[in-house]
Design goal:
Aspartate Aminotransferase, domain 1; alpha/beta; three-stranded antiparallel sheet; seven-stranded mixed sheet; Aspartate Aminotransferase, domain 2; 399 residues; 15% strand
């Protein structure tokens, strides 16, 4: 690589591109006091940027390539630059992102992968798909992410990787996890499915471990209109393996150099995501504004509220409160036409699919959290009036 190209790459990695778009936001449909408020409404994000998204879709439809073409290449480069890494590799979904990341570090059936019991079950499924043994660790009561103390207890000579989930949009406790990985020569993989634009020590999540894995599911902070995922890394060798793994192990067209899979991000989703990526900073700012309104209005109630831990910037994929009165509060909010979610009602070791291998575990914090968490409505298109209605509903529950 020439000196000029090296300087260009260095600039790309250390100059985060602006994501605020100049396109006018489309007027959203009118909602009134009787309109239901759900914990997520991804269609509103399409409506907000409909003109630009429709134009991007039309361009793909009129083109000649529908799979792994210029839109995918463009999105991969733009998202990698946004995160602050060298490579982005688009895949079919977030589960595949983790699965292929584990394959790329040559996980074997005898290997162990430590991850959290309190997460979307997709995290666990991805490890299982890789053939490795899932080792579940507890979470902390402040972040609801991996407890480094419990992780340290569960490291063995067979531990190949730690998958740290940045849950609800808040970074995991990466400092001690990085130290454990360094000390034991373990790979840190970041599950950033819920944490687009979250930061740890001023760096985007996904750029801290060896590999970062993102879901682009419609409800995510950066969501497609369909399934999608992307893996990011600054490791050239890992990136090349991932590109081969996602398409049958091909290095040259139709010539497999390793056993591979079929996990490709299509052109239409990539085109949609390129439009939305330009607005991601604005959408994150709005999420944080809504979160601040919730926190100010609900402080002092018998609820555990989320917030930024030291050196962290929460992206508020979800605004999750915790209360032993969850079911009663959830039912009460329905009277206000407010319908929160629960993420997640069962820790992984309590799922029937994993009872035989992990049902004996005692993970008290994860079990308590799963019984008490409630996700209030959170998406950038919420109006101030809708936020106020959610607040009124919660406050009225407590009299």
């Amino acid at each position: 690589m020439s000196a000029a190209n090296l300087l260009g790459l260095e600039s790309l990695l250390h100059t985060r591109p602006a994501t605020t778009a100049s396109a006018t936001i489309t007027t959203l449909p009118t909602r009134n006091a009787d309109t239901p408020i759900y914990f997520a409404r991804p269609n509103l994000q399409y409506l907000a940027y409909r003109d630009a998204i429709d134009a991007a879709i039309q361009k793909v439809l009129e083109g000649t390539t529908y799979i792994l073409g210029e839109e995918v290449k463009g999105f991969e480069a733009e998202f990698a630059a946004y995160v602050g890494v060298k490579h982005g590799i688009g895949v079919a979904n977030g589960t595949d992102a983790i699965h292929l990341a584990l394959r790329a570090i040559d996980v074997q059936p005898d290997d162990e992968v430590i991850t959290t019991a309190h997460t979307a079950i997709a995290t666990i499924a991805a490890v299982t798909m890789s053939g490795a043994k899932v080792v579940l660790a507890d979470v902390t009561a402040d972040r609801y992410t991996l407890d480094p103390v419990d992780v340290a207890r569960k490291i063995t000579p067979k531990t190949k990787a730690i998958v740290a989930v940045h849950l609800y949009g808040h970074p995991a406790d990466l400092g001690p996890l990085l130290e454990l990985c360094r000390r034991h020569d373990i790979t840190l993989i970041e599950d950033c499915a819920q944490a687009h634009a979250a930061e740890w020590q001023g760096r985007q999540v996904g750029s801290i471990g060896r590999i970062g894995c993102f879901s682009l599911y419609p409800t995510k902070n950066l969501g497609a209109i369909g399934d999608g995922g992307i893996v990011v890394t600054s490791d050239d060798e890992i990136a090349e393996k991932l590109r081969q793994l996602r398409q049958y192990g091909w290095k040259d067209k139709q010539l497999s150099f390793m056993p591979g899979y079929n996990s490709r991000l299509d052109e239409m989703q990539a085109a949609i995501l390129r439009v939305k990526l330009r607005h991601l900073d604005d959408m994150t700012a709005r999420r944080r504004e809504i979160a601040a309104r919730y926190t100010k209005a609900l402080s002092g109630l018998p609820l555990a509220l989320p917030g930024d831990q030291p050196d962290c910037r929460h992206a508020y994929h979800l605004y999750v409160v915790r209360t032993p009165d969850r079911e009663a509060l959830k039912a009460h909010l329905a009277h206000f036409n407010v319908f929160p979610g629960i993420h997640y009602p069962w820790p992984a070791h309590k799922h029937p699919a994993y009872l035989e291998t992990a049902g004996h575990l005692q993970l008290p914090v994860a079990e308590t959290v799963a019984d008490q968490v409630l996700s209030l409505p959170m998406y950038p298109e919420l109006t101030d009036a809708e936020v106020d209605r959610v607040i009124r509903g919660v406050r009225s529950f407590y009299g």
